[in-house]
Amino acid sequence: MKRIFFTYLLAITSITFWIEARAESGNEEPWPSLCPQSLDIPARPRVEEVLGIEDIHLTADEADLVEEGTSELRGNAEITRGSQQIRADYVEYDQPQDTADMKGSVQYWDEALYLQSDQAHLEFDDGTGRFQGAEFIIPDNRVRGQAEELTLDIGTRTELKDVDYTTCDPDDTFWKLSASKITLDHIEDWGKARNVVLRIKNVPVFYTPYMSFPLSKKRKSGFLAPGFGSSSRNGIELRTPYYWNIRPEMDATITPRVLGDSGVMLMGEYRYLLERGNGELDIEYLPGDNEFNDEDRNLIHFEHSQAFLSRGDLFLKYNRVSDKNYLEDFGNSLSTTSTRYLERRADVAYGGRGGNLLARVQDYQTVDRSQLITSRPYKRLPQIRFNYNSPYQGLRPNYGLKSEIVYFDRGKDPDLENVNGLRLDLFPSISLPIQTVSSFLKPELGVRFTQYNLDNNNIIKDSPSRVLPVFSVDSGVIFERDIKLAGNGYSQTLEPRLYYLYIPEEDQSDLPLFDTGLYNFSFASLFRGDRFSGPDRMGDANQITLAVTSYLFDQKNGRSAGHFSLGQIYYLRDRDVGLPDAEVQNDSFSPIVAELDLSYFDSWNFRSELQWEPNTNTDQKLTLSAQYQPEAGKVVNIAYRVHRAPTGVIQRNPVDIDQTNVSFRWPIGPRWSVVGNWNYAISENKSLDTFGGVEYNSCCWGVRAVARRYLTDIDGDYQSGIFLQLELKGLAGIGKKTVDFLEKKIPGYRSEF
Fold first, then answer.
1. Reduced to 3 states, what is the DSSP secondary structure of residue 581?
2. Does residue 382 have a cis peptide bond before it, meaning omega lies within 30 degrees of 0?
3. Is residue 751 classed exposed, middle or buried when 0-12, 13-18 and 19+ CB atoms within 10 A define those classes?
4. What is the pLDDT of residues 28-71, one digit of tens each?
5. How wide is the angle at C-alpha 594 spanned by C-alphas 590 and 597, nearest 5°?
6. Domain residue spans in the chain?
7. Whole-prediction pTM value?
8. Smaller CB count within 10 Å for the chain: N or C?
C-alpha cells in the first residue's frame, strides 16, 4: 500500500511533463453541465451604428476632443474598433499615433478574450496592447487567471509575466499553474512557460524551469499523459510516453514502461501515411526480466496496407514474441493472455468486373505451451484464390466461380503423424434468380472439384480427389401491414423463407484435414451451402430449412423497433460425413433457432438467441442481454450466456459455457459515479473478470480509480491491478488508457473527462 501511495505522489508531482500533445478522440464538450453556464463576463458595450473595420467609436460622460491631437475621455469612457472594445474611468486617445492610454477599472473585450486591469496601453494600428495587473478569461477553454503584465498581439501572440493559470472556478480552485513568464503562439497553437510551479489545493507539487504545451488539438512533439497502475504480476506500473511529430504524415511514440517487479520496458510505436497506404510498427523490449530468469523479452508487431493501380491492395502483417509466456505476463485481458497463435501474413489482392484475385503467404507463431505440432495451424506457402460472379441478371443465368490453390506446410516430425501438401479446389456454379418486390426464388447448381498432391506420407494416399454436385433452392415472400402500438404507427413485415439443399454422400476419409472445421450453429447456418468451413470436407445433405422473420419499423422516422426470427432444418436423410474422432449427429431435426432484437421501449434494448434441441428437450445455446440507458452517463448491461456441446456429437475439445455478465456506469450524485463489471462462470463457479471503481468529475478536474481482478490463463491464474486516471482539464491528464478499457468492457459507456 505504501508503494502505491508513493508512486501516486510521484505521478502527481510529474504531471506537467505529460501535457497533451496530439489529437485524441473524446467528447466535443470536455466540460459538461458541471460547469456554470456563466463565466461572469460583463456584457460588451453596445454600439448602435454600424462601424467599418477601421472606424473608431468614442463615448464618455465627459470628453475633451481634439481633432488630429490627443483627446481625453472621463467617466465610463469607451472605445470600439472592429472586434476590440475597451472601457475605463479615464482614457487618453492619441489620434495621430492611433494609440490609447487607460486608467482605472480597465475592461477589454475581443472575440476570444476578456480581461480587466488597473491600466493599459493600446496601439490600434498593429493590434497590440499592454495591460498592468490584468485578470483574464478565455471563454472557449474556460481559462482564467491573472498576470502582473499581459502583452497582447491580437490573433498572433500573447505574453504574460508573473502569471497564474487555471480552468477552475474561483470558489473551487483545485489546481493552479504559476509561471514567471508564459508565451502563447496563436499561429502555431503552442505555448511555452518559464519557472513553472504546479499547485494542487494551493500546495506546490512540482517545479520545472521550462515547459511547453498545446493550445489546440494540433499534433506537436512532447510528453503525453502518463499511464499509472499496479498489478499482482508486475507490481507498480508507470508509463511516460513521448510523442514525436516527425512529419505531417509520420509520427512515433516512445514509452518507457516502469514495471516494479520486472524492470524497465521500452515501448515504441511508429506510424506513417503514404499516398495510398498506411502502416504501423510496434516494438516492446524488456532487458533482463527480474521475474523471468533475467532473460531479455520482446514483442514486434507490424502492419502495412497499400492500394495500387485502380483496384489493387497489398496487406502485410508480422507478429512475434520472444517467449510463450509474454502475452500472459504483459497482456491486460483474458482474450489477449489466452491467445494461442500470432499471425504473419502477406496479401496481394485485385478485383474488378465481378472477379477478385488474392495471393497470400501465411504463417503463425504458436504461443500456447500446450499445443502439439499436429494441433497447430498450417502455413500457407502460398495460397491463391480467384472468385467470379457475373453481373446480376433477373430471369437469366448468373454464373459464379470459387477457386483456390494452396500449399499447406506444418513441418516434419518423424515421431508424429503429419501431412503436408497441395490442394486445388474449383467450385463453378450457375443460378437463375427470380425476384419481385415481395418475393424471390433462386435455384442454384454447382459442382465442387478438389484435388490433392501430398508429400510422401504413410497415412493416406498421395493424390486423393473428390467431385460432388451441390444443388440448392432459396425462396421467400414478404408480407407487410400497418399496425398501431400505444397510439403510434408501425409497419410490420412477415417474411417466411424456405431453403432446400442437396449434396450426395461420398466417403472422404482419404482426404487430409488442413483448415476445415464445423461452423458454429446459428440462424445464419440454416442457409449455408455446407456445414463445414473449408474444402477438406463437404457435408452430405438432403434437407429443408423453414424459417420466418418479422421486422417492426416506426413509420415516423423509419427506425427499426426490432425483429424476430425463427427457423429449423428438417433432415430428409442421415448424415455420414464428419470429422475424424467425431460422431456425426443424425437426428431428424436440427435445433430450433430463435433470435430477438427489440428496441421498442424507451431507454431499453433487448437481445436474445435460443437454440433448443427438440430431440433431447434441452437448450443447446441461450444468450440473453438487456441494456438500460435512460440518458447520457447512465447505463446498465445484463447478459446471460449458455452454450452446451451438442448432444450426440463427440468433439475433440468440447466446451460448455454458462456465464453471466453485469456492467454499469451510474451517477450517485452531481459529480460522483460508480463503474463496474462482473463476468462470472457458473459452471466453474469462478469469476473471470471483475472490476469496480469510482469517478469524480468537476468543471476543472476529474479522477477515476478502478480496481480489477481477472483470469489470465486456462490454468486458473489471476492477476489483480489498480488503475488511476487524473485529469486537470485544460492542462494534463494521467492514465487516459483507462477510458479505452471502460468503453470496451461497459457497452454504452462514454467518458465525460
1. coil
2. yes
3. buried
4. 344 445 676 667 788 877 665 545 555 778 888 888 888 888 88
5. 155
6. 58-216
7. 0.78
8. N
